Amino acid sequence: MNGSRAEQISNLQTLARTIRQHDLRMISHAGIGHLGGDFSAIDILVTLYFAVMHIDPQHPDDPERDRFILSKGHAAGSLYTTLAHAGFFPLSDLQTFAQPLSPLNGHPNRLKVPGVEASTGPLGHGLSIAVGSALAAKMDSKAWHTYVLTGDGELQEGSNWEAAMAAAHYGLGNLTAIVDRNGLQQGDGTEHTMRLEPLADKWRAFGWAVYEINGHSYDELLDVLNLARSAQDRPRCIIAHTSKGQGVSFMRNRVEWHHRVPTADEAALALQELGEAV
Questions:
Q1: 151 pairs with which residues across the strands?
Q2: Strand partners, 236
Q3: What is the pLDDT of residue 255?
Q4: What is the rounded CA–CA span in Å between residue 138 and residue 144?
Q5: What's the whole-number average pLDDT of the chain?
Q6: What letters, b where the CB count within 10 A reaches 16 and e where it falls short, cover 265-276?
Q7: Helix residue spans in 140-247 (DSSP H)
Q8: In angstroms, what CA-CA distances link 11 with 47, 50, 188, 213, 247?
Q9: Alpha carbon of residue 135 to chain centroid
Q10: 10 Å Cβ neighbour count for 62?
Q11: 255 vs 36, 88, 206, 274, CA distance in Å?
């Protein structure tokens, strides 16, 4: 995106609002999905795909592209709607989400959907895949960068910390992990389920550079994600403090919206709050 910083942020905000509208319509039509976690992640995805990553939707397999891995694969709706708006496949394909024989499954499949870098769903795997991706780039002296978005609840999986240890050991300065820190997981808050705090200190203890930001502030997202591209000898972790259900008042910070489909009346109200005339 060109223009001033203010224009860029305004464009990103408009895109995010539209993507939330399409995501809500898609999940309402399918009768399945994870709107709460989708909505907490969309501002991060929009910033990556429209302002930070080096990608070409017309050549999704370009060997020099940046890689993005959605470790919290149950938030596939946020990825599909972002990829469609970025031009990886037609917007009309979103209407097939979770339908028989549709490539747009409830979890992303790299063999079926252009732009999907890793098939994810079982939690705790994405960071390990991202470490392998970044290590491959380093071994081949390639300039592309790997980004991975994890849920905060999935950090309770021990495989993440093995991957974090390996990333620091190999000095993967071309790797950025973003934690969608909305504080909620299926059924309860993360700190009631299995305490994560002090989360930033944990990442630092594993040898990572750590940043904590407001995950819905485009100013902060742009600054820290562009900084993360600068050459360093260690991986970066961005703890993005977000709200589950961001953008819709009755979904925001409500654990039941982890995996719930709105009624027709709720969908209409949510679309109004997201600025769509219904």
A1: 180
A2: 176, 209
A3: 95
A4: 9
A5: 96
A6: ebbebbbeebeb
A7: 159-169, 190-193, 199-205, 218-228
A8: 10, 9, 34, 20, 16
A9: 21
A10: 13
A11: 8, 32, 30, 20
What's the average model confidence in pLDDT over 85-109? Answer: 97
Q: Are 115 and 60 in contact (CB under 8 A)?
A: yes
- Provide the 3-class DSSP secondary structure of residue 189: strand
The owner of tokens 């063999």 is 111
Single out the residue of 23, 133, 120 nearest to residue 81, CA to CA.
Answer: 23
* Per-residue model confidence as pLDDT tens digits over 167-222: 999 999 999 999 999 999 998 999 999 999 999 999 999 999 999 999 999 999 99
Q: What is the largest CA-CA distance in the chain?
A: 54
Residue with tokens 């900084």: 227
Tokens of 42: 């969309």
Amino acid at position 148, single letter: V
Amino acid letter, 252:
R
Tell me which residue has tokens 């021990």: 158
pTM summary value: 0.96
Query: 127 is written with which tokens?
Result: 């960071």
Please compute Rg for the chain using Cα positions: 18
Per-residue pLDDT tens digits for 245-268: 999 999 999 999 999 999 999 999
107: amino acid identity, one letter: H
Can you identify the CATH homologous superfamily of domain 5-273?
Answer: Thiamin diphosphate (ThDP)-binding fold, Pyr/PP domains (3.40.50.970)
Closest CA to 124 of 81, 76, 71: 71
